[in-house]
């Protein structure tokens, strides 16, 4: 399955303040880094995958997607882009909760990290984990989208900070900016969205970088075999779309192998795209190897609904195999969709989610479906923002993925089970309501282990454990809900999660 940028929303102009989409192998609670996370008790299990060399125990990287330190256990990266660092407000930090040892806070003031923390940088505006160097240890990319503002009130130029996994944990690597991808540096908010996926089928991951402020937006591709890093825009010849300065192309990113050929494609959300209606939104599927693009909107054939102003189609994305056919499917959040009577323009929206299934020929809209609380547990209301965050994973252990939908206006999450007989089903759908703070604003899953739900407004993470139960059951056990980590309010701890 492809990986998703867990933080598609902007920091300097949020309409739906906590859009989003981390993995934990066990309930663990590392020591609290300064101003960041405090948690419960650590897990008791020891490290796995060890070898002895000259009397010294050395861990090898496990190859797990989220194993940053090679101990065989999944780790979790949690962004808090408004953390004060070195006296600088909103400089930002990322806390890494390691599976068998204490957590660690990363910032631009951490040893070995290039640059320094500055006011308003937003370190952690997006996160993505993947094995970028092919060594079997997961690496972490951190977006710093507001770095280097040319003037007060301007968007940041933005950079991406890389950290490389190792048996000792994450180590600082290089920084990347628009200049490294052949573009002039400027207020592009480079790094506002991130995703990782194997785009060329060579076994390691490439990094996909959103720059939604570069005119109408751009998507950068870094690490592709045989190709220098570069950017794709709506006006790139093989994409062939009209570009408007406010579209925010690349503000949301995900990757998935939608045609099952062993190479991932990119899904690029442009939630403010104006095609026929202001801010209706769009998603473009980019096959960078074949140089092909496909545009999806609510006006696409067989996609339920119609494009309307401020729907924000593409405001969140997640990929998963909901019908276990070996091809990834794409869930598209439409958090601004209005279902309530007499809803006014620019109100948040009840929200819906469209799901397009993969096939041998790629995503096939003829088998798409739409979900809202009209057909599920709960009641749609104009402020719910159903679909503002999405995640996918095999939560019940039966081999197909479940879909988790954030409903932060309701402080809730909704879970739909996948099935081999037709994909997602409303049977036994689960609605779980948490405490305030935009609970459901960011999500992360691990198959057969648990669901992590962030409430960035309160700076709190909640873990819900799962159990094996085949069929149309979501697998999540609400009775197991437990606070995983907390941080000071106002830091936006949990704004982005990475696995």
UniProtKB/TrEMBL annotation:
Signal peptide limits: 1-36
Keywords: Glycoprotein, Hydrolase, Repeat, Signal
InterPro entries per record: FG-GAP, Int_alpha_beta-p, Integrin_alpha, Integrin_alpha_N
Transmembrane segments: none
Chain segments carrying region Disordered: 34-56, 103-125
Keyword Hydrolase part of the UniProt annotation: yes
SMART domains registered for this protein in UniProt: Int_alpha
UniProt key word Nuclease: no
Pfam families assigned: FG-GAP
Official protein name in the record: FG-GAP-like repeat-containing protein
Protein species of origin: Streptosporangium fragile
Organism ancestry: Bacteria, Bacillati, Actinomycetota, Actinomycetes, Streptosporangiales
């Amino acid at each position: 399955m492809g990986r998703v940028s867990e933080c598609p929303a902007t920091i300097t102009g949020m309409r739906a303040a906590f859009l989003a989409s981390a993995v934990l192998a066990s309930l663990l609670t590392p020591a609290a880094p300064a101003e960041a996370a405090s948690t419960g008790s650590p897990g008791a299990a020891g490290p796995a995958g060890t070898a002895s060399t000259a009397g010294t125990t050395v861990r090898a990287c496990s190859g797990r997607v989220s194993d940053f330190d090679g101990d065989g256990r999944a780790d979790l990266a949690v962004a808090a882009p408004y953390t004060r660092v070195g006296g600088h407000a909103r400089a930002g930090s990322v806390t890494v909760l390691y599976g068998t040892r204490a957590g660690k806070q990363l910032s631009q003031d951490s040893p070995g990290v290039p640059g320094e923390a500055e006011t308003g940088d937003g370190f952690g505006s997006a996160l993505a984990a993947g094995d970028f160097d092919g060594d079997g240890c997961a690496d972490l990319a951190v977006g710093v989208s507001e770095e280097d503002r040319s003037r007060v009130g301007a968007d940041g130029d933005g950079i991406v900070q890389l950290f490389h996994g190792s048996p000792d944990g994450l180590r600082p690597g290089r920084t990347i900016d628009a200049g490294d991808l052949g573009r002039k540096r400027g207020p592009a908010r480079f790094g506002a969205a991130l995703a990782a996926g194997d785009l060329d089928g060579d076994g390691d991951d490439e990094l996909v970088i959103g720059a939604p402020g570069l005119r109408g937006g751009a998507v950068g591709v870094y690490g592709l075999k045989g190709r220098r890093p570069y950017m794709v825009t709506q006006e790139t010849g093989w994409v062939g779309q009209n570009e408007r300065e406010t579209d925010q192309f690349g503000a949301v990113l995900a990757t998935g192998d939608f045609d099952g050929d062993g190479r991932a494609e990119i899904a690029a959300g442009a939630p403010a795209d104006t095609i026929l209606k202001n801010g209706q939104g769009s998603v473009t599927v980019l096959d960078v190897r074949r140089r092909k693009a496909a545009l999806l909107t609510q006006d696409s054939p067989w996609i339920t609904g119609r494009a309307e102003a401020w729907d924000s189609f593409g405001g969140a994305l997640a990929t998963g195999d909901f019908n276990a056919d070996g091809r990834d499917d794409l869930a598209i959040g439409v958090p601004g969709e209005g279902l309530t009577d007499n809803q006014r323009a620019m109100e948040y929206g009840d929200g819906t989610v469209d799901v397009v299934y993969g096939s041998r020929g790629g995503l096939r809209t003829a088998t798409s479906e739409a979900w809202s609380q009209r057909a599920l547990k709960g009641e749609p209301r104009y402020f719910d923002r159903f679909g503002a965050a999405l995640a996918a994973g095999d939560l019940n252990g039966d081999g197909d993925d479940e879909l988790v939908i954030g409903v932060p206006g309701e402080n809730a999450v909704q879970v739909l089970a996948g099935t081999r007989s037709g994909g997602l089903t409303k049977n036994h759908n689960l609605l779980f309501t948490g405490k305030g703070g935009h609970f459901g604003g960011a999500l992360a899953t691990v198959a057969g282990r648990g669901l992590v739900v962030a409430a960035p407004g309160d700076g709190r993470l909640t873990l819900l454990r799962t159990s094996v139960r085949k069929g149309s059951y979501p697998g999540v056990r609400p009775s197991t809900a437990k606070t995983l980590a907390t941080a000071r309010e106002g830091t936006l701890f949990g704004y982005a999660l990475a696995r």
